[in-house]
Task: structure prediction
Amino acid sequence: MIPVRIALATLVAGALLGGPALAQGDVLVVDANGGPGVFTELQPAIDAAAEGDVVLVRKGQYAGATISGKSLTLLGERGKSPRITSPLIVTGQGPQHSTAIRGLDVSNGGRESAWIQLRDNEGPVWVEDCDAEAGEALNCDQATFTRCTLASNKPFAGMLTEASQVVVAECVSTGGLGAEGFIDSATGLPVGGGAGLDGLFSQSPDDLMLVGSTFTGGQGGDGVDATRTTPCAPGGSGGNGVRSIPGEGGNTNDSVIWVVDSEFVPGTDGVSGDGCSFFSTGFPFLSFPPTADPFRFLTGTARSVSANSPVREGGNLVVTLRGEPGDRVYLSFGFTQEQTLQPALGGSTSFNDPFFIDTPFMIPGTRELELTFEVTELGPGVVSLSLFIGGGYQDPSSNNFVGSSTYVTLFDSEV
Result:
């Protein structure tokens, strides 16, 4: 990577003068170890937060929580990987609400499930740099998963979407494992292994944009060996990379799935019992009914903007631009989350009313350019500032593209 250093003072000044009130909020701290003025659990901190506040989660393990009825940023302390051990839910957000979640590990190695659930939200919801056993978006007008890893050894899809507009950018999503075969205690007969789950399971009507991501079906469950008294049982079939079907109670598939530079990998079949010869992998992608074809494969490679977060005064905000050699990148900044699919530009925009750095940056032969912004004082009385950073790309042939964005939070040095 080629580093470039830039002062952030002009950006911050512009934000404080022209940015909306939601860009600046108070900070509530969650720390499992306790301490003066901090919460030890997530839900009380979320309940206490006002519109537009930031809830900063330090290292530790926490029960899940629900965000509803307010704009909020839920942010894990960088490098600490706070762990949420039961579902993290965003639900009932109105069109005036904006939600962002970043830097959390939502998983549980035990029998209980832990995943990120976005349900019945009109307002935009952003999820970035999170690890989870699964992610779902049900009846959501604007949902984004970016740079997340979704995988589980439990029997559910890596990602589930239904009746939602969802952008999935630079994510890895893997379906769960099929159930193991067993001998039925009532009949004494073997039961074969269960099918692996899908990397992404979409139910119509969805409008999806999949950019630079990998979706892998889960492995089928193993079968049962033959014995003197029982036949063998086969292993389960592998899950599909992506599967699209009509919504519950429907018989038509009205989804549209835009695909940019993404990989669909079928799951492998489970090991069949001794004496069985049943083998069945999943499909890279599959739609039902067979006449439906929601997939729209676009040419070109994924382009993206990423950055570290949070960053405190006196620190460096490191922004990484990824693209093709020779791309010119016009960096943009914004404070109001609004998702718009842009298939003609190979991606989506994530915020409105952006302002730009007029001078473009050039992507080198390494396909990555690193920019370092020096974070100066945020200003009197400002303890946090949250913003989106995106990029408009133009290749040497003057073709235009949009890169996946990133969401960053800057803190006062005392936070």
In short: The first helix runs from residue 9 to 18. Residues 304-411 form a domain with the S-adenosyl-L-methionine-dependent methyltransferases fold (CATH 2.20.130.20). The CA atoms of residues 204 and 250 lie 8 Å apart.
